Amino acid sequence: MREDASRGEASQSRESNAPRLARVECAAHFPTLMPSVSRPRRAALLAAVAILAAAPLRAQDPAPVDSTVAKQLDLGAQWFRASCLECHATSLADPDFRLKWSGRTAYDLFETIRSTMPEHDPGSLTLGTYASIVAYLMKLNGMPVGTAALSSDSTALAAVRLTFVPAATAASTPR
């Protein structure tokens, strides 16, 4: 009897409250779609679906890529000064560096730095910090800055080939 009454109320308010009606009808039929699922579990499933449905909306909000890259380069410069400059007093923006690393991958450079530096405690920095240092060294040596921050993922790093601009152009690149 109560079910008939709620259906009657729903049909009367169909024009005035259509979105509410859709939710009422959906909620009324949901238990029949999943009869073996308990009410608390159904509520948890509905909450999970709502969260997943909202996720693409947040992912579509464009993050300022330039600021992310700039932050990574600034972080790389800070860490380089704090952890690397002590041993590498001369700039690593030089023809020897470019000659040694040209044609190799960003992963090769990342892994060399990660496994050997800092000298007193190799591997002690976070992977993100090592990626920031590599990004800074790439920029310092004239590689074009990308549109996204350099990842610390080995597969992504292996896909980046180190190709440096000629020394004269690299020297004029702002740092």
Strands, helices and their partners?
Blueprint: H1 2-12, H2 18-33, H3 39-60, H4 65-84, H5 95-101, H6 106-116, H7 127-140, H8 154-158, H9 167-172
Helix pairs in contact: 4-7, 6-7
Structural summary, described in words:
- The chain is mainly alpha-helical.
- It folds into two domains: 2-60, no CATH class; 65-172, no CATH class.
- The chain contains nine helices and no strands.
- Helix 6 (106-116) crosses helix 7 (127-140).
Feature tags:
disordered N terminus; mainly alpha; 64% helix; 175 residues; 2 domains
Summarize the structure.
This protein is mainly alpha-helical.
Number of strands: 0
What does the largest sheet look like? Answer: none
Q: Which series of helices and strands comes N to C?
A: HHHHHHHHH
Low-confidence stretches: 1-33, 54-65, 169-175
Radius of gyration: 28 Å
> What is the tally of helical segments?
9
Overall tally of structural domains: 2
Spatial separation of the terminal alpha carbons: 77 Å
Q: How would the global form be characterised?
A: elongated
Helix content: 55-70%
What do the pLDDT scores average to?
74
- Helix vs. strand class: mainly alpha
Q: Estimate what percentage of residues fall within beta strands.
A: under 5%
